[in-house]
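Hey, quick one: can you model this chain's 3D structure?
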Amino acid sequence: MRHLQALTMSKHALPSSRGFFHELASRNKAPILPPNHIRNYSNYVSLLSSCKTLNSLLQIHARLTVSGLQNDHLTNAHLIKSYLLFLKCNFARFLFDSLPNPSVMLYNSIIRAYSRKKNHQEGINIYHCMLNKGLEPDKYTFTFVLKACSGALYFKEGILVHKDIIVRGLERDAFIGTSLVDMYCKMGDLKLARKVFDKMPEKDVVAWSAMILGLSQSEDPIEVFGFIRSMQLSGVELNLVSILNLVPAVSRLGDIDACRCIHGYVIRRGFDAIVSNGLIDMYSKSGNIDVGRQIFEYMPDKDDVSWGTMMAGYAHSGCFLEVLELFDRGRGENVRMNKVSVTSALTAAAEMRALGRGTEIHDFARQQGIDSDVAVATPIMTMYARCGEVDTAKQLFQGIKGRDLVAWSAIIAACVQSGYPQEALSLFRSMQNEGLQANKVILLSSLPACAEVSSLKLGKSMHCCAVKANVDLDISVGTALVSMYAKCGFFALALTLFNRMPCKDVVTWNAMINGYAQIGEPFPALEMFHKLQLSELNPNSGTMVGLLPAFALLNDLDQGSCIHGKIIKCGFESECHVKTALIDMYAKCGSLSGAEFLFHRTGCRKDEVSWNVMIAGYMHNGHAKDAFYAFCQMKLENIQPNIVTIVTVLPAVAHLSALRAGMTLHAYVIRMGFQSKTPVGNCLIDMYAKCGWLDHSEKIFHEMKNKDTVSWNVMLAGYAVHGRGSCAIELFSRMQDSEIRLDSFSFINVLSACRHAGLIGEGRKIFDSMSKQHQLEPDLEHYACMADLLGRAGLFNEVLDLIKSMPMEPDAGVWGALLGASTMHSNVQLAEFALDHLDKLEHKNLTHYAALSNTYARSGRWADVGNTRSKITKTGLRKSPGYSWV
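Sure thing. Here's the predicted structure for all 886 residues.
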């Protein structure tokens, strides 16, 4: 009966009795000892202790069962310990549950074994079973159960165990104190860890090392150096474990001086041979990859960890070609490539968008039998997604056995980073449908996708998930939520959440500054920056990158130059992303010379981002030829153009009407697999329409799978430019039927098509539907389109009524449309009326006077023509010379 209860209590942990005894019977092939010897207690204890294989242990157990010694308490105790040495917890547990009163020592052994097998929950269950039986835990019990709590990340359970320790007065014990410090550090609560540590009367190197590891992995690892100084002042020397625990802090801080100090210390202590892999990691992540490589090459005995560490260092430093070269060299030297090596190689292939190499590495992982391991399957899947093979990535993801939240997080993050936010959100919903609860990592991967597609509803749903998971007050999650609301344009919610956050770091402030700058609100962005300066936090390089677009929006080169000075003073100028933001700011403020100076002077390698910004800067200033030349120069320097490059340079080709160059770019897009990207498709439609190949624009538009509002608008604009009013209206109707969100540009484009085709009735209906059906208020451009449409038809009274009804003051576009229509119909009175208003808005604009002069000429008023031309001559107005493509 007791056996049945034990099996019921933990059915997943135990083998069936039939299976267990079948295993014993199968091993009972030959007598191991004569019966008189097996009965000798000391002999069988020594035999159990000397077992080197599980097979020999099972044979001895079988003989004990046959000899009738199975029910002996001491025999079972030794058998349990022997099984636990082989980590056979299920066999040990079966015997353990058969004992009427297991000792505390046996309970400790079982708990410890479960922790080693990473079955932490079962270890905690055994601890509770022990308490329920009224047994008194000793210091080893608490040490093992605390390890189980930290392994399972059961914070509340750990707190309860800590309370039991306090009740029993064991908190100051060195073993238990160290275990508590270790548990709290691993759970991220450094305050409690430090509190326990400070209470310990005697701290050995193990306790100090546990605290060092916790501080090294904390949000502010720089604290660890002060802690080490305290350790040395207390007379405790760093040992090998202490140094290894210090490696994560130095690697994260990228502190080259700290690297050199530790390197010197380990050489002095004779640890350099053992710590070599750690030194490679530290130097690689401190920006000194060459020193890391030297250490690697001078190592006499490189193991698989050494190769993996070196490859991971190259991957961290962005040296992806070197990763693949090292991977090939290792395979050539028959080095066993571990999971770290394979994942680093996959990361390199993904970053280089080298699908062919990535497929080769995938095949290698399959041959090694590690492709089904979640740690390897996840980067394989990510590689395919980053290379544009999202369907393949999803198929692999579906095939991962026992996929955990890490795998879900990886596929979602890969889709977001590869430009597939909708796919990412679809996967998030699928995860929820499978009953999995989003954790912190999943939310950090998914929230950017909501921001990308402005899906406020799903963003709010994720906010609820964060609240349920009790991570909404976490700094990183709170920052992601603030960023999401800001990018969705809901600054009231973003600001409310920002103000409610109990702890804010500089990244949180950056999210607000970036958000305001991205929606074109420079003044709130500057106000946030000033508030950040008044706080206790210091702006970082990310702050500067978010702030610089505000000066570009204001076209304020002076203030932008001042911030440039601050960047130099803070030492941020050497960072590539800061320099790229400065180039962008100078270009958008009209200082192309300043942008070019920074671009060519840049100390860091010019990557595709800096080239993209420079190309965009040329286009912003109307230098399409220079933009295309920069693109050609980029290819000559072997920099691979990415999607942003294509989207940036295609408008230059369209502006130059360089059809041949546009077709070459289109071929490159197909070769790189970018044709499925919506922004690229939109630019191709625009380019072909402006180069006169409207049929190609239509073909690309109809073949696009993921059309957005911009896709429809660009096609409408193409029809408008080519005077295809009927096609534009038909497309506009389809757009409404497809439930695509119409915006201001949709109406500008279709109204332009109507005015070019003279479709007055349709234009009126579309204009009226803006506010009545679509709740969009017409702006100046819409009124200018309507004034031109009605004016071309000679409906001047209606044009004047329209202008009088405008809720805002008419601009030069509206009065210019009236002037153009008046010239067309030789209406001198209205032309003079329009010019009076235009002269106030755009004084000394020759084009307007030329139009009035033409109107006088059409009406035969040659004296007025002469007066107008004399006025033009006296005021010094000159017409810019035109040019022809022919």
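One thing worth noting: The two ends are 100 Å apart (CA to CA).
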